[in-house]
Amino acid sequence: MKAAASSATNWSRPQRVGSLAELNERLAGIDAAQDGRHVHGASASVRINLTEAPLLHPTPADDFELGTTLTPLVHPNAGT
User: Using CA atoms, how far apart are residues 10 and 30, in angstroms rounded to an integer?
Assistant: First the structure.
């Protein structure tokens, strides 16, 4: 499946297009080819996952903290 996706997108070399309309046509073709693809371990196809996108809440306008990075220190004899 990975080979099919690679050949469909052809990321190996840049391709030139003559117009924005041609670029949109190529991208629409790539998008259509990817719709039935399944991500490893997921039961839903890529297309089904994209149909849920309008139901997602927008990201906040303000910056927010994603998380706090902690580095715990554990004494080697703590469990004994």
Answer: 10
**What distance in Å separates the CA atoms of residue 65 and residue 52, rounded to the nearest whole number?**
26
6-43 burial, b for 16+ CB within 10 Å, e for fewer? eeeeeeeeeeeeeeeeeeeeeeeeeeeebeeeeeeeee
In this predicted model, what pLDDT tens digit does every residue of 7-45 receive, in sequence order? 455 566 777 889 999 999 998 888 888 777 777 777 777
Cα gap 2→11, rounded to integer Å: 12
Tokens of 34: 């990817």
Phi then psi for residue 57, to 5 deg, are -75, 150
Helix axes 2-9, 20-34, angle to 10 degrees: 170
> Phi and psi at residue 38, in whole multiples of 5°?
-110, 135
